[in-house]
Design goal:
Structural class: alpha+beta
CATH superfamily: HIT-like
CATH topology: HIT family, subunit A
Oligomer: single chain
CATH class: Alpha Beta
Number of domains: 1
Order of helices and strands: HHEEEHEE
Radius of gyration: 14 Å
Number of helices: 3
Distance between the termini: 40 Å
Number of strands: 5
Strand content: 15-25%
Shape: globular
């Protein structure tokens, strides 16, 4: 484990919030509530900031399932990593009513 990964909050993933699912294949990641914004997010189990389009699709599809199970309505995905930019994660957001409807994708109704 690198020195950067040793100090990474997302590498440690302390169970301080609700966990929804943990995946190992085809990609290791966990879906849990973010302790900063209290919204579901998917956290890659590897310490890196970039994922392939396929990896992103896998994570957002699983995250959309959680959002639908929670009844969050029209969903969007936010992978702008503000507080921890060196470890890939994506937040699930309820789309504001004033946004145009989503055309398609895992969060579309």
């Amino acid at each position: 484990m690198s020195e950067a990964a040793r100090g990474c909050e997302l590498c440690a993933l302390v169970r301080s919030t609700r966990w929804y699912a943990q995946f190992f294949d085809p990609l290791p990641f966990t879906i849990l509530d973010c302790d900063s914004c209290d919204t579901p997010m998917a956290v890659l189990a590897e310490h890196r900031s970039q994922v392939s389009e396929e990896e992103k699709r896998i994570m957002t599809e699983a995250l959309a399932l959680v959002g639908r199970a929670l009844g969050l309505g029209d969903l969007s995905f936010d992978d702008r990593m503000r507080q921890i930019p060196e470890h890939y994660h994506v937040h699930l957001r309820a789309r504001p009513r004033w946004w145009p409807p989503a055309a398609s994708g895992p969060g579309a109704a």
